[in-house]
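Why run this: before we spend reagent on co-expression, it is cheaper to look at a predicted model of the complex and decide which construct boundaries make sense. The entries below are exactly what would go into the expression plan.
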Amino acid sequence: MKKYFPVIVLALGLLFLGAKLLPARASSPYDLAGFSRLPVLLNGRLKPLDTVARSSLLVFQGRQPVTTPSGLELTPTEWLLDVFFHSELADSYQTFEIVHPDVLALFDLKAEDGDGKKRFSFTQLDKKLAELDRQFQLAQPVEAQTRTTFQRAIVQLYGSLTAYQRLKHTLASPETDDFLGELRRFEKLLPTGVAAVRAKQSGQPHDTETAKAMLELGQRYLFMAESTNILAVPPDSTDAKPDAWQSVGQSLLGSFQTGAVNSSVLAYAGLGYAWRQHQPEQFNQLLALYRTTLVKPFGPKLTKVEAEVRFNAIAPFYASMTLYIAAFLLAVISWIKWPDELGRAAFYLVGLAWLVATAGIITRMWLEGRPPVTNLYSSALFIGWGSVALCLVLEAIYRNAIGSVAAGLVGFATLIIAHYLSLEGDTLEMMRAVLDSNFWLATHVVIVATGYAATFLAGLLAIIYIVRGSLTRSLDKATADALGRMVYGIVCFATLFSFVGTVLGGIWADQSWGRFWGWDPKENGALIIVIWNALILHARWGGLVKTRGLMALAVFGNVVTSWSWFGTNMLGVGLHSYGFTDAAFMWLTIFVASQLALIALALRPLENWRSFKPTAAPN
Amino acid sequence: MSDLVRQFRDFFVSLKLTVVLLALSILLIFAATLDQVHLGIWAVQQKYFHSFFVLWRVGDIPVPVFPGGYLIGGLLLINLVSAQVYRFKLSAKKSGIWLTHVGLILLLIGELLSGLWQEEFSLRLNEGETKNFSESYRLNELAITDTTDPKFDHVVAIPENLIARSEAIQHPKLPFRVVPKTYYPNAALAMRKGEPAAGTPPSLATAGFGARVEVTPLPITYQQDTRNLPAAYIELVAPEGTLGTWLVSPEVPMPQRFDYGGRTWKIAFRFERSYKPFSLTLLKFSHDRYAGTDIPKNFSSRLRLTTPDGRDDREVLIYMNNPLRYAGLTFYQQSFEGETTTILQVVRNPSWQLPYLACALMTFGLLIQFCIHLAAFIGKRRAARPATA
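The model came back. Tokens follow.
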């Protein structure tokens, strides 16, 4: 039994993944999956409505599920359908997270009024929107880094509510109960209506009622066009430029010229009608019909859009996170009991989790058509991936479960960081022109990220050494020596990669901006990592530090690297400051403090280390 | 060798010195990064890196508080070279370290040289416009031009720091003295509204547009994207008496005309110019945004490059990551304004190839050293395995 334990664990891991791959059983009479796969153009990218729904909810409330006031659980797609077509219902869902007490006071709300004491509905906020707007106008001119927490909360809430309004005006006008009926009347009225308006403008006799109705509709569609940035109406021909996608409002304004309402607009209005009237069969039929009209012109592009929906549903990085935790626990227990069996089981799980993460990263690369690292979110994924890859190599060589423990920790931690970064919005962004170079993204960014990963890993291994050595008796001499060699080797590796990556960055800067080195904060951060690694190596070669000192220095490498990765973005100056979350500053401070505490622990004399007490210190 | 000399040598050769210098450089870079929020990138470079000591002002006295870039870099250079001379024998095993260190020496020298030699200018062109000069990002000059000859302009350009000194300037090419009366390093100009209120002093300016303009001094800005726009009242004094006082500022780039001694003159305070032996004409500027967004996707400038002697007359295309290198200058696509105005950055850096060479050497050296270590590690494990099995 004991012998088969690793295989059983591996089988359980595979089973867990298999369950994720199975499509979720449909619990709704509506073809929600089909609707979520419809493509729209948003922020320069063709994406499924599924992504629009999920990333909007993450921005609004930091989580994907929605609970209605009557206690019903909605999927992101169901929520989006209500926002699109049944907005008076959606307005009552508590989906906007507000935690700042002063912001709550602004709306005359108490934490108790909210779902989970922090989520509020649009209806609850509606009355004081003018005040929010006023506060936003006050906060907006202040530079982002110097805003107070209140101002930041205001700007964030304002952004969320604006995004919500955009969603509401995307496919139908929220001002009418029967948008389909309105469109039908509009289409019928078009020929006479346009003539009446023309006559009115040139001062000829005309039917005033028709002209007035026409102008009112024109106003309404203009408002719709101005209120959304989601382009849902595909161009008529496939060879049209990607810009040719239009919003429903723009398309309807175009109808004044063409004399007809675009079929996609009508299809969406029809879907809205069926959704409002609770007619799933009609909804599904219309959806199937509309999808077939899309397949012919957009076939290859639809493949990517649909793959993205599958990717969202499988959520490989969350699956990977679970496996990393399991592997970490098994590996730690292996230091106490069943070292071989548990150790191997942990190794298998780490391998599995790493493969899942690899598949996830490759899928993202394919979807985006880019190298792996394009923004802060993907850098977190990649740094975790690189660190775990190094851990796997170490574990394959040393087989002492240290690699697995480190892999579990670093894999989990980086994916958690990635999760919080994903709350900023869609993580597959378009690249700004300055950074639009696949060659440099593939070389400089990837190599620098590998250098970061290695520096973190060296620090983590050093932490394992310090904690096990000083607080437990489990660190025997062989393991201690092995850890010493591991940290030294990884620091060498980190020096090489962080240096080469930084240099490539310099060359890229010389190619695009005309200076090899500009003392930009991010450049400085990378340089500090290189110098710190060089310092560790020189201190070791010069005999200034032995194993314990090496460990303390390697832990400080974590501080240096986290500063370069996140701290520099918080300064908000320079070309590289592309992403930053406010809460990150607090976490960075906590992290740095914890690392300093560990260094202090390492600096205690060896006589006080539990592992080294009985025998003479092995230095 | 005497003891003292040996001690001296040992100090400069020691690895301890290396470690201390590396640690100091980290602190220096870190402090400089934090200070960028207040000082802006250019001032930070001057204060921290292009200096021997970082100075803090205590009252009016600058007090050195930390070694600057030149001092740390210089000591590191000495440390490296002397270690190279005294400690390392040239051998295959050490070849990686050798290459890395030689590369690092070149890199430090390269950074020193580019700090000393590198010049940056900006070139802004509207479609159809031709220019044979670029403009400084920070410096300004007072240009007094004799435009009497329709074929040639005679220009006397006076750097801003001379204006700032507020001393009379007599230039041999000018038949009058230039007397800077008041100078503001940064100021905003606005039209005076209606009749000046009672009690406000009349403008110092007696000629040109200055009498109608109000000048408000502003604090010097260090922000990265804004530049200081100075203003000055300049009096021109001929032997027979004053010609008048003009208000000049780069905020109003149009030169002001006046006549003296039967010749026509123009006076303007403008961004300092660097003239080139060739000219560039913007033929077409193009840029795209991602559909439905304001995110720039790409931008590029098609230009015609011509020299007066007619040797060069060709079209060139500059876009992101694809600069034009010509006559020792490099032209980069930096920015744009509206749909038809391009902003190019012009850099002169004679030592631009040095970092490439240095980095190639260092990368190669580190790679060799890493492989040597790896091979030794694998070899050791191979040897150890049969014993444990």
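The first strand of chain B starts at residue 53 and ends at 58. Chain B touches chain A through 60 residues (CB under 8 Å). Bring this page to Monday's planning discussion.
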